[in-house]
UniProtKB/TrEMBL annotation:
Lineage of origin: Bacteria, Pseudomonadati, Thermodesulfobacteriota, Desulfovibrionia, Desulfovibrionales
Signal peptide: none
Protein's name according to its UniProt entry: Glycolate oxidase iron-sulfur subunit
Gene Ontology molecular function: 4 iron, 4 sulfur cluster binding; metal ion binding; oxidoreductase activity
Keyword field: 4Fe-4S, Iron, Iron-sulfur, Metal-binding, Repeat
Domain 4Fe-4S ferredoxin-type residues, every copy: 1-25
This protein's record includes keyword Iron-sulfur: yes
Top-level taxon of origin: Bacteria
KW 4Fe-4S (keyword) present: yes
């Protein structure tokens, strides 16, 4: 029998939901105490005292950030427990979320533009969080680069395919173009990755396991058809999800996948980086939850922006389906995360597409701008 939570409380220090409510039943250990008896591995679900309606409520109080698992001595994932609960207790929001992710992507920019037309005063209070989320889909105007990058060593002809992710493909295509330009400058042979689809991570969090498996198998087949090249991702959440593909692959192919799947900035080896006159005096960095301790972006950026400092906040609250099932909580988490940046840091940089969208939805009220690091770099024209 699998051993459950020891109730040690380490997760209380890292859970962004607990940081908001300070109520232990909403912390990972509290959720596990309430929900583990519902799992057949821990006991007879028929005798459980907790109703599935209550389970659904608890499942709306998790952003799937994975912080609790990283500090847990037993590496228990409350996010996984809640994803299982969603899968066994389907709700209409899960179907709508899957539709939004898998089918409605081309409509995201239009939804953003329409939301900009709605007067704030005319929007019911219950819809304001959703309106702010939609408005974040509208891109900020391009800015002049803060950093120029050039290779001092190249990887001539090494094949690589870019895994751009849903957000970039549908709402920020210039990130895709910039990433391809950088890889080409480093000498990589950039293959066509347009056949890739959603990474599946947000579908898993929503309990849509069949949909997750469908997109995962499609992406793996695209990779195989291309000859198993390097896979570059510039979104921490996508990279986290892609890493988990190894669990469903045969041992040899799993090892190959792990070795080939990289963060984009990790492939830009031995760069020469120079700050431009446009670089701000103060800027901050939001470290995505899904980079964990293996963030390749911050070391790259600090070479040109040595004063760049991480925010002290926890998860931004993007949380996948949390945006639909509990949008007010998602926004409250974003605001609390935003409070962790220095007041003088008007510009916030990050390396996760979802984090950009989420923090952008609350940034204007704080007089700040949030951008992906691809927005602030350019290939050195003299290279």
């Amino acid at each position: 029998m699998k051993r459950g939570c020891t109730q040690c409380g380490e997760c209380l220090n890292v859970c962004p939901v607990y940081a908001l409510f300070k109520r232990e039943e909403y912390a990972p250990k509290g959720k596990r105490l309430l929900m583990e008896p519902l799992d057949a591995e821990y006991g007879d679900a028929a005798t459980a005292q907790l109703s599935w309606e209550r389970v659904r409520h608890l499942a709306r109080l998790c952003a799937g950030c994975g912080r609790c698992q990283r500090v847990c001595a037993r590496k228990l994932s409350t996010s996984e427990l809640l994803a299982d609960a969603r899968a066994r207790n389907p709700h209409w929001t899960q179907s709508l979320w899957e539709l939004w992710i898998r089918r409605a992507g081309p409509l995201w920019p239009l939804a953003g533009k329409i939301s900009m037309l709605a007067p704030d005063a005319a929007v019911p209070a219950g819809l304001r969080s959703s309106l702010a989320t939609a408005r974040a889909l509208v891109d900020l105007p391009p800015i002049k680069p803060w950093l120029t990058l050039a290779p001092t060593q190249k990887a001539p002809g090494t094949p690589v395919v870019l895994f751009s992710g849903c957000t970039a493909v549908n709402a920020r295509p210039r990130w895709v173009a910039k990433a391809r330009e950088l890889l080409a400058a480093w000498g990589y042979q950039v293959l066509d990755g347009s056949a890739f689809t959603c990474c599946g991570g947000t579908l898993h969090h929503a309990g849509r396991y069949k949909a997750q498996e469908a997109v995962r198998q499609k992406n793996l087949q695209v990779w195989r058809n291309l000859g198993r090249p390097l896979v570059a991702s510039f979104c921490a959440s996508c990279k986290h999800s892609l890493d988990e593909y190894a669990a469903v692959l045969p041992e040899g192919e799993a090892a190959q996948w792990k070795e080939k799947c990289r963060g984009l900035s990790a492939l830009l080896e031995h760069p020469r980086i120079q700050a431009t006159a446009e670089a701000p005096a103060a800027a901050a960095y939001h470290q995505p939850c899904h980079w964990g301790t293996a963030d390749p972006d911050l070391p790259l950026l600090k070479q040109g922006l040595p004063g760049l400092k991480k925010g002290t906040g926890l998860c931004c609250g993007m949380g996948g389906i949390l945006k639909m099932s509990n949008p007010d909580l998602s926004m409250d988490m974003a605001r609390k995360c935003m409070d962790g940046f220095a007041p003088e840091a008007r510009h916030i940089i990050t390396g996760c597409s979802g984090c950009v969208m989420q923090l952008s939805s609350v940034a204007a009220a704080k007089h700040k701008e949030v951008r992906h690091w691809l927005d602030i770099v350019a290939v050195d024209a003299g290279n």
